[in-house]
Amino acid sequence: MAAMKSRLELEQENRQIQDELAEIRQQLVDKETTLEQRNAFIEQLKEALILARNARFAAATESLRSLQRELFNEAESVDAESSTDDDVNGEVNSIEVPSHQRRRGGRKPLPAELPRIEVVHELKNDERRCTEHDVDLKEIGEKVSEQLDIIPMQIQVIRHIRKQYACPCCEGHLRTAPKPKQPIEKSWASAGLLAYIATSKYADGLPLYRLSGILNRFDIDLDRTVLANWMIRMGQLVQPLINRIEEQLLSSPVIHMDETPVQVLKEPGKSAESHSYMWVRCAGPPNQRVILFDYDPSRSGSVPTRLLAGYQGALMVDGYEGYSALCQQSGITRLGCWVHARRKFVETVKAQGKGKKNTKAEYAIKLIGKLYAVERHLEDQRAGYDEEVFVAYRHNYRLEHAQPILAKLKKWLDETRPTVAPKTALGKALYYLDHQWPRLVRYLDDGQYPIDNNPVENAIRPFAIGRKAWMFSTSIQGAKASANLYSLIETAKANGLEPYAYLKTVFSKLPNITGYDDVDNLLPQNCK
After folding, report:
1. Is 364 exposed, middle or buried (0-12, 13-18, 19+ CB in 10 A)?
2. Is 110 a domain residue?
3. Mean pLDDT of successive 10-residue segments in the chain (528 residues)?
4. Residue 256 resides in a domain
5. Is residue 29 part of a domain?
6. Cα angle 36-41-47, degrees, rounded to a multiple of 5
7. In the chain, what is the straight-line distance between the N-terminal and C-terminal CA atoms, in Å?
8. Longest C-alpha distance within the chain, in Å?
9. 509: domain range?
10. Does residue 397 lie within any of the structural domains?
């Protein structure tokens, strides 16, 4: 019996030991898991810190020097795919850079249309004598060199002299010559002055208080409040042009759209520090684009619903989900932006810090670069085609050359994403690419569809630069006027017009228009 108890006790002790060992193993596993989670969290913090430092101190560029060799040669490698299974695992094959002929430097000649002032330099009389033969020198030619000269602001006063006429018999039949309507009646401001102020602020990013200071140097006392009121009046004056531009934009097959913050100090129901938004729409082929800025206090999905009411085409936007309801309800084709997809992988590479590589992210950037090589080739061919023929050609060329690249990228995405922690920079880039994929590949469906949202981002850039200088709008009226003037200036620039000359023409002629034809003649694409 004693022996039996001893055996039972041993078995019980053995089970206790096994249970304790299992518990210890589980604790070790839990500790390892916790340690892995901590290490992953530390890596996420490192990535966030590097990205924050880059955002604050580094140059705002999306180019990666480590990839320049591959990217420069993308156009040559589009038709000859030579990747292997090693590429899927993140190994990026090196590509040789083809030789090229460097163009010699040199100054461009000064524009021939600029006025010339000739300054003739001659020898003194006593220097025009040949000392060897004691005869006068004969003029045989001249050497000409040119300098560019700028005269600071020329300010002048335009005097409107209206002749008066009376009947010599009764002296009671009095007539006065009429004066054309002015942009602002009974004001000092001429069309030229108003165009100068608008161009300086909205095209060159010069705040009104600095403009006031510049004018004060010429003894012209114009307070910035006066200048601001003038700009509000000009924003209201150009509204007929803005309406016609919007009609053209909503008839386009594709519209680009984006939004950017703006601060309005005196806005009902909102603090002065809160953000409102400039919504920007862009449409049309290169050199004939129309660009519209619209102020709204909200960033909600109701804004694009209002701005695109009745539209039935395609919409190119970023990943913001505020556009989803509009596209679903209105049947609008939503296109995804490859620049935004690429940007996520660029941030991943930057997050690794100096001296480190992320071959998976670099591989994605390389494949996206090949998609853009297809687009560059197409743009190089554009001039030789009628627009309608080019659209069909681009559609077929993309299917032949871009579709295989997309298939390779999708295969790599499906194989790579399950192996990457979702909260890392690479995990977020992969999630964005996977989530946006149906929208990103829609550009293959039609040759009219663009690959990215760059046109509208380029249109926003002057506004963002100016915002750093003038910082805010005081009132809603000012914000709406700024939206109209930015729209007109950016559309003029997109159509190859010099902003000051165009605005001066518009401000001079718009007060005297008599019908829709007069408005159409002042549109940037018609006003040459």
Report:
1. buried
2. no
3. 62 76 76 68 63 61 50 38 43 43 67 88 86 84 86 85 85 83 90 94 92 90 91 95 94 93 83 86 88 91 90 91 86 92 88 70 92 92 83 93 94 92 87 94 94 92 86 86 95 94 95 88 87
4. yes
5. no
6. 130
7. 116
8. 155
9. 191-277+453-528
10. no
